[in-house]
Amino acid sequence: MLLQRILTAIPLAILSVWAILYQSTEVLMYAFLLVTFIAGWEWGQLAGIKARSLRIVLAIVLTVTVYLAYRYILHTPWLHYMLMVTVTWWCLVMYRMAVKPPAPASDKFSVIKLLIAFITIVPPVLSLLRVHEIGQGAYWLLYMISLVWVADIGAYFSGRKFGKVKLAPHLSPGKTREGLYGGLLLTSLYSGAASVFFKLNFEQAFWLLVVTMLATLISVAGDLFISLLKRERGIKDTGAILPGHGGVLDRIDSITSSAPFFLVMLDFILRHG
Predict the structure, then answer these.
(1) Among residues 23, 24, 70, 264, which is most buried (max CB within 10 A)?
(2) Residue ranges with strand state E in the chain
(3) Helical (H) or strand (E) element with 258
(4) pLDDT for 60-76, tens place per residue?
(5) Which residues pair with 162 in a beta bridge?
């Protein structure tokens, strides 16, 4: 299983780095539209949509929404308002997961879960594209995405070595608090290396450390939220397109919550230069 995950992850990582560093934001947008379409198809299952044709319709609507938002919202104040709403939404999600157990597994259609797709998928995609446009944007975007990878690596090895206390046993039994601490430690070191690379001053480096650790915590919320939806639907993975990883949503779950927050705070960090 681990070997299969690695064999899938390596070409994906190489392709992602190449696209981020050497392609324009416009080209990247079309790549993200493909990811959005697949994620929309998978979300149809989470929402209880059984008809393949209707799942395709949802995927198309989400993809078109991202495209239109890129064209008409990305460079307007509306993006800021959208991000504020999204960050608030994730705070509410974290509270909900902390105080309320998942509902019993059901395959019934849910309008609410259908609508949640738009706030879970659209703002993060716009955030990634907006980061790519700013100064040194390709490298900032690479940092933001790789931050999730680094956190996963730290959590995996720390959890295997020291993991005892379950983080959220009702949602993801495999995650431990010790794994989370390992992820936070490794990402904090990673932020230090990034501060040197981006030549940040002391104040900027401090805030990058704070933002990095908060983004790591928020990324866990995205991971657990998708786990919650899968449990309530009675499924293990959102799809099977990525061998060893499951579906696209299984791979981008952490980014859905961390990307909007990171974009908001990155603007704050750069203004303190």
Answers:
(1) 70
(2) 166-168, 172-176
(3) helix 248-270
(4) 999 999 999 999 999 99
(5) none
